[in-house]
Amino acid sequence: MTGYTPPGTAAGTTATGTAAAAGATAAAGTAAQPAVPAKAGLQIDIGVSSTLKVDDNFQLQPTSPGTSTILDNGLTFGLSSVTGVQDLSLTGSGVLRYGDIPGRSLSGFEDPTVRLRYRLDGVNSQFTLTGRYRHVDREFLDPFQIEQEETNAGAFYAGGGTMTVRNAGLSFVTGINDPVTFTLGLAHDEKDYDATALAANARLFGNKTDSANATVALKLSPVTSLRFNADFAHYTAEDTPQTDRTTTDYSIGVVQDINPVLVLDAQIGFTEVETDTTTGTQHRDGVSGAATLTQTLANGTAFVGVDSTVNQNGTRESFRFGRSLQLPLGTFSASLGGTHSPSGNTYAIATLAYDRQLRSSNIAVSLNRAVSTNNVNEDVLDTRLTVAYGYEINNNSRLDFSANWGRSESAGIGNAPTIERTSLRAAYSYDLTQDWALTGGVLLRHRSDSSAPGDAQSNSVFLTLGRTFSYRP
Q1: Separation CA 222–CA 417 (nearest Å)
Q2: Which 8-state DSSP code applies to residue 162?
Q3: What is the number of other CB atoms lying within 10 angstroms of the CB of residue 278?
Q4: Would you say residue 148 has pLDDT above 90?
Q5: For a tag site, which of 143, 179, 222, 389 has the least CB within 10 Å?
Q6: What residues contact 235, with CB distance under 8 A and at least 6 apart?
């Protein structure tokens, strides 16, 4: 196949168990992201695509209000410059959208997104700057894709309206080749929702987090190193209690090579969490720590680890053991364990990532099951499973199949609803020319929500024509 990637094509998995899934949402109408230049120099990438989709229940309601027809003309732009000491990447995308959805019509420019990444390498230091902006209609989000891009974004929550995301971060490392290395990181993460989104779901509200991290690493010997770490995070939310939370964490850690194939990585620290709301102030603190023992084997690694963390709900302890394998035609890694939550309950947790590449096909499987705390102070058990399979029919055509399943449920504290989502996609791609690709397929979606009456089912078909242009001045 040529350089054009059909929108929504499952391209693999990540270690966290979430994967960018195809959908008859914005993902199906966005042109392929600009490619990363293979060699140094300046490169300009432009992508265009047109996607026509018809969905019998686009808004995924228990009772379909009618059929929706949407035409998305996706545009992407990328500027990248790579030299011996600098790496700059600036990308932007948007959609010219025309749609007929029961109850409303669409016409205009949608989903503007801008990403920036800049890295400067010195003789003994490195500086990195990142930034991102996105303003998107939530009804056009693929929840499995957005969960990969956004942490705790409430992607499984139903409802429309718009979401605006602003991220910025910088890090500076000095003394990379010295016995003493200093690292400083700053980050800003902000999410806002319009009135429609806020009215549709009370669990959505504007919030922002400003954080800072400082680390000093000392290499005492070829087999021993120490690190001292300090973290600070300030979280504010436009929720009903007007939450204002400050979290500070201090820790000391050691990495010790017990022998050439056995490594211990351990740390111990203290965490304080202070939460101010309109009803008063809550203070939590406690000892935090982690220890991981990793054994290098002939074809991979094996590990066992324990950790204890403190947040606004209390202390959570976890235990894991895992194995990674380097296979002749792919990779495999998995872990299994348990988490003891502040509620007193214990939950099984797991990860799995498997990729296998054959001569004319490839398969990718990922699983992630973990406990986290959401923005309304509820402990949530999330499970995500993704399976993707692709088959090269010949040099000009390809079949792709993907399945995504996710479940979010309460983990003891709070009343988080039980939400399940499933998406099944099948697509056929054909290269019309060396540059232009045509992709057509079907997408089936399903959602159940314990806080809403009835399940929702959607069936859609889509057809996409697109390509990318690359130019090196």
Answers
A1: 51
A2: E
A3: 9
A4: no
A5: 222
A6: 207, 208, 209, 243, 244, 245, 246, 247
Instruction: Spell out the residues 6+ positions from residue 382 whose beta carbon is closer than 8 angstroms to its own.
Output: 368, 369, 370, 371, 372, 406, 407, 408
Looking at the predicted structure, is the pLDDT value of residue 74 above 90? yes
Q: Are 347 and 381 in contact (CB under 8 A)?
A: yes
CA distance 426 to 22: 9
- Residue linked to tokens 């990447």: 89
Mean pLDDT, residues 210-219 = 98
Q: Quick check: helix, strand or coil at residue 270?
A: strand
pLDDT of 276 strictly over 80: yes
d(CA 1, CA 4): 8
Instruction: Name which of 422, 456, 457, 428 is nearest 442 in CA terms.
Output: 428
Give the angle subtended at the CA of 135 by the CAs of 131 and 138, to the nearest 5°: 125
pLDDT tier at 149, thresholds 50, 70, 90: low
Reply yes or no on whether the pLDDT at 369 is more than 70. yes
Instruction: Report d(CA 371, CA 346) in Å as an integer.
Output: 10
The residue behind tokens 């364990």 is 337
pLDDT tens digits for range 295-342? 999 999 999 999 999 999 999 999 999 999 999 899 999 999 999 999
Quick one: pLDDT at residue 147?
63
Residue 97 pLDDT exceeds 70: yes
Residue at token pair 């228990």: 62
Where residue 12 falls (left for φ over 0; alpha for ψ -120 to 50; beta otherwise) is left
Query: Is-contact 285 314, C-beta < 8 A?
Result: no
CA atoms within 13 A on the CB side of 447: 26
What is the per-residue pLDDT across 10-33, written as a single tens digit (0 to 9) for each?
333 333 333 333 333 333 333 334
3-state SS class at 139: helix
Residue type for position 439 = T
CB 145 within 8 A of CB 21: yes
The length of the chain in residues reads: 473
Q: Report the b/e string of 237-258 with b at 16+ CB within 10 A.
A: bebeeebebebebebebbbeee
In this structure, are strands 314-327 and 207-221 parallel, antiparallel, or unpaired? unpaired
